[in-house]
Specification:
By secondary structure, the chain is mainly alpha-helical. The protein contains 20 helices and 3 strands. The termini are far apart.
């Protein structure tokens, strides 16, 4: 066996362990009995330790040294690059810290779920305090001389840089509020055709029809419900979850289509490359671009509702027009505190709020006990209102429960990239005509060819240029929302 073959076999085994841990995490959030946490936290901790050992052991280090100047093709060089990056970060982190982090995130989940149900931040405060401290230790272990938040951000987006995130967020913070203000000042009244309560079971049938229509492969996936919608898996098993609101029957469509975007990216990754970076996604900015493409540029389009409104009528028993559904899906809210229910415009103010709080927490500029008050103040500053309680405020997201500090900016970066990808796709495909006709195969194939098929072969900036023909830019997103919402609200 050549050095590269032995190296690749090691990487594949490591991937299989990580994917098994992911399934345990999915199970905990979706199906595990409430009493399973003590055992699950130990199982997750053990698998994290095994994965960390495999990523940092001397055998892998030896392979990487031998392959440093080897004559490798482009794909092999990409695999070595990605594994070396992860290896060099991981080898600086003590194994016992990895185990403590894994154990704590598993233990924190049910505490957060109960605190959120009770709307009581104090019940989760100690868990969050420990998670923040553990993540600070983690960042310091990797590089004690750098901004710890920057180090953590690279867990989720290693190639764009936190400076890019800050630049994009600052630009959106400057340019979106005037549009939102013009919408608030307009006289437009959007449709609100739904009254009463709608059975969750009926809503689930409706979103399953949406997934069938879009082309979700249920032979390699499944749909379940969870407190916070998410997607997890591989190209062979990409599972999604959603949630339902009896009073707002179309609220489940957006999150379900969003998670479909994540899952269809996974299902579109090269099957023959499973186990190596060539069969893995290109981190969270690109991942989020796929979910936001389908949620916003397809699922919120007038063309989609021309196609899907009859299905809504069939399941909900309401006489609704495509235009009414389109307006419901695109209403800009002036008082919605929940990020995952936010419209395309104010959504990014939610992200800016979270970004600033988690950055200050990790840098030590904000105490955990101060989070609820600061959250409420920032929501008033950026969105114009205060949440009624902690469940609608600082307890609504699961990310910090996972120790995922640095994750939130990728939502906005992904939304920006989705608009850039959409603009590129429309150069080759009449997207609206295809959507209106229910012909989603050409759209999925274009995305597979331009994005999914590359796995992690390219860095993020390289993949953006490969897929769109230009560097990463927020121009397309700002043009898209300005054109769409000024037309919708006649402002």
């Amino acid at each position: 066996m050549s050095t590269y073959d032995a190296f690749e076999a090691h990487v594949e085994r490591m991937t299989y362990v990580n994917d098994a841990a992911g399934l345990l995490n999915w199970d905990q959030q979706v199906m595990m009995p409430e009493g399973g946490t003590p055992a699950r936290s130990k199982q997750q901790s053990a698998l994290s330790a095994v994965s960390h050992e495999m990523l940092t052991d001397d055998e892998l280090a030896g392979y990487l040294d031998e392959l440093e100047d080897a004559d490798l093709d482009g794909d092999q060089q990409a695999v070595v690059r990605e594994v070396r990056r992860e290896h060099e970060r991981a080898k600086r982190v003590p194994e016992e810290l990895v185990e403590r982090l894994s154990r704590k995130t598993s233990e924190a989940l049910p505490v957060w779920e109960q605190a959120r149900e009770d709307s009581e931040f104090e019940a989760f405060e100690d868990e969050l305090e420990e998670l923040v401290q553990l993540r600070r230790e983690y960042a310091e272990a990797i590089d004690p001389d750098r901004d710890p938040y920057e180090v953590l951000f690279e867990e989720y987006e290693p190639y764009l840089g936190v400076d890019t995130a800050e630049r994009v967020l600052e630009r959106l913070a400057d340019e979106l509020p005037p549009l939102v203000e013009d919408i608030a000042d307009s006289d437009a009244e959007l449709a609100d055709p739904f009254e009463g309560s709608y059975d969750v079971e009926i809503q689930e049938e409706m979103v399953r029809d949406a997934l069938d229509l879009l082309g979700y492969d249920f032979e390699r996936g499944r749909l379940d419900t969870s407190t916070h919608p998410f997607t997890m898996g591989t190209q062979f098993d990409a599972r999604i979850t959603t949630r339902f609101d009896p009073e707002n029957p179309l609220e489940s469509v957006g999150p379900t289509v969003h998670e479909f975007g994540h899952a269809t990216y996974m299902q579109g990754l090269p099957r023959e490359a499973y186990g190596t970076p060539l069969g893995e996604d290109r981190d969270l900015t690109v991942h989020e671009s796929q979910s936001r493409f389908w949620e916003n540029h397809v699922g919120r389009s007038a063309a989609f509702w021309e196609l899907f409104a009859p299905t809504v009528e069939e399941h909900l028993g309401e006489s609704v027009t495509p235009r009414e559904c389109y307006e419901v899906a695109n209403e800009v809210y002036d008082d919605n505190p929940i990020r995952v229910e936010a419209d395309e415009l104010t959504y990014h103010m939610h992200i800016i709020l979270r970004f600033e709080i988690e950055r200050d927490l990790i840098r030590g500029d904000l105490e955990v006990s101060e989070v609820p008050a600061v959250w409420n103040d920032k929501m008033e500053e950026y969105l114009g209102f205060r949440p009624d309680n902690d469940a609608e405020g600082c307890l609504q997201d699961i990310h910090w429960t996972h120790g995922s500090f640095g994750y939130f900016p990728t939502y906005t970066l992904g939304s920006v990239l989705a608009a850039q990808i959409d603009a590129a796709a429309r150069e080759d495909i009449d997207v609206d005509a295809r959507v209106r006709a229910g012909e989603f195969d050409p759209i999925r194939e274009w995305l597979r060819e331009q994005v999914h098929s590359h796995g992690a072969r390219y860095t993020t900036p390289e993949l953006v240029e490969e897929a769109t023909g230009e560097p990463f830019t927020a121009d397309h997103f700002l043009d898209y929302v300005d054109d769409k919402y000024r037309a919708l609200y006649d402002c």
